[in-house]
Amino acid sequence: MDKLAEESDAEITLSPELDFMENKLNQVKNNLEKQKKAAHDAEQRKNDLVVYLAHDIKTPLTSVIGYLSLLDEAPDMPPEQKAKYVGITLEKAYRLEQLINEFFEITRFNLQTIVLNKEQINLLFMLQQMADEFYIQC
C-alpha cells in the first residue's frame, strides 16, 4: 500500500503468488497518476483562461478610462467630438460588459453540477404557456 501511495514511477512488485494483486495494484497506481495529471491539466487550463480573460477585460477598460479622462480634462471640447468620444466609450463599456458576462457564464458552468430529474409533463399545457408569453411580444 505504501508503494501505491508514493509518488514514483516504479512498478509495484510482489511475490509470484500475488501476481494477480500486483497487476491490479499497478493498474490502480496508473489510473491515479492519469487522474492526477488530468486534474493538473484542467487547473492549468483554468489558470490560462483567467489570464486571457483578464487581459481581454483590461483592454476595453483601459479605453473607457482613457476616453473618460479625455472628456473630463477637456470641458470645452466641441459637442461633435464629445459625442464621438462618448459613443466610443459606450461601445467599449458594452464590450467590457459582454466579456464579464462571458467570464461569469464560464465560471457558473464550471462550478455547478447539474443533476437532471426526469418527470412527466403536460406538453400541451407547456406549449400553450409559451405561446401566451410570446403573444404580448408580437
Structural overview:
It contains 4 helices and no strands. With 138 residues, the chain is an all-alpha fold. It has one domain (2-135): Signal transduction histidine kinase, dimerisation/phosphotransfer (DHp) domain (Helix Hairpins), CATH 1.10.287. α2 (19-73) packs antiparallel against α3 (79-111). The model has no long low-confidence stretch (mean pLDDT 82).
Helix count? 4
The first-level CATH class name: Mainly Alpha
> Could you tell me the strand content as a percent range?
under 5%
Binned, the helix content reads over 70%
Radius of gyration: 29 Å
Termini separation (Å)? 68 Å
SS-derived structural category:
mainly alpha
Which fold name corresponds to the CATH topology? Answer: Helix Hairpins
Overall outline: flat
Q: Any idea what the CATH superfamily is called? A: Signal transduction histidine kinase, dimerisation/phosphotransfer (DHp) domain
Number of domains: 1
Task: Name some characteristics of this structure.
138 residues, mainly alpha, Helix Hairpins
Question: What does the secondary structure layout of this molecule look like, with pairings?
Answer:
Elements: H1 2-5, H2 19-73, H3 79-111, H4 123-135
Can you give me a brief rundown of this structure?
This protein is mainly alpha-helical and 138 residues long. The chain is 76% helix and 0% strand.
